[in-house]
Amino acid sequence: MARRIDTYLRDLVSEDKFDFYSVVRDFSDAEIEPKLLGWERAHELVPESCIKQMGEMGLFGLPIDEQYGGQGGDHIDLVLMGLALSYHSQSVAITPGAAISLGAKPLQLCGTEEQKREHLPDLAAGKRMFVFGLSEPGRGSDAANPEVTATRDGGDWVINGEKCWATNARWGSHVVVHALTAPDNPNGKRSTCFIVPKDAPGVFYQEMSGKKVWEQSSTGSIMFENVKVPTSAILGEENGGFKVMVTTLNGGRLFIAALALGSLAFALDKCRVYANERIQFANKPIARFQRVQDVLIDMDIALERNLTWLMHCCNLYVGGRLS
């Protein structure tokens, strides 16, 4: 049975973009779906071999400019990747998704030319991964008031505190740390973002366990104890961390919506198959009964309506009309 989401996507995106979606969809069918149950039963994270395959396909470099080794795509490509991968596994989808929308994207939007040349080629190839350090145990995702601090020490900065719920914490090579640098400034101008190597002295990482969702995705806490970084590690402007965080999150929200719709598309297709195979009263498939039809129709309408709205928002975002 053909995927319902494919029918709708053909009318919502260009032929080239649908062809790209189809390539990722076929990869997901061939390389993820047959192995997923084994990963789940063994409580394993997405294996490095799968991450390497996605890197070789260029998925980590989707929206990165070609001059830095990326694909030169846009946010629509990123969302289509999310739809294709999350059909079978949101854990797999969020691995490159977070690495791009929460890792590489803030560097591309706010980084200096030197920082871009240093990091973006390896990020695009999947050889390096940035972790988004916003959430904290006591503050949640309050982008205006981080508890992690960064204080001046001559020409350097010293970072202390803890970030939690960091996606790709295990795989990350660097952490974009959002830290309080000017506590007396007004909201929105109190924090600064720093690019911190995860192997720097004083950086410690602990993987979370017992998650109920995204079990195959790496999620962890990252602790900083007197971690010293140079001023050149600042991403964006000093005391401009809030702007970096908000700019990053706006694009990431569209990707999260794609994950939800990929899962809905999978559920709808499975329900359609089961309803036509399950024989019940009067020796009829239950798809013949009106109440079951009502449920399937509601799911189908939800998929089409929300997918159309998502792609509309993506077009606005790409055109600079959604912030």
Task: Describe the secondary structure blueprint for this structure.
Layout (H helix, E strand, L loop, with lengths): L3 H7 L4 H27 L6 H9 L18 H12 L3 H21 L2 H12 L5 E4 L15 E5 L2 E12 L6 E7 L10 E7 L5 E5 L11 E12 L3 E2 L5 H37 L1 E2 L3 E2 L4 H29 L5
Parallel strand pairs: 1-4
Antiparallel strand pairs: 2-3, 3-7, 4-5, 5-8, 6-7, 9-10
Describe the overall structure.
There is one protein chain. By secondary structure, the chain is α+β, with helices and mostly antiparallel strands. It is elongated. The mean pLDDT is 95. A hairpin with a 2-residue loop joins strand 2 and strand 3. Helix 2 packs across helix 4 and helix 5 packs antiparallel against helix 6. The protein contains eight helices and ten strands. It has a domain of 114 residues: Butyryl-CoA Dehydrogenase, subunit A, domain 2 (Beta Barrel), CATH 2.40.110.10. The strands form three sheets. A four-stranded mixed sheet has the order 1-4-5-8.
Distance linking N and C termini = 38 Å
CATH architecture assignment of the domain at 130-243: Beta Barrel
From the spread of the alpha carbons, the general shape counts as elongated
| Structural class determined from secondary elements | alpha+beta
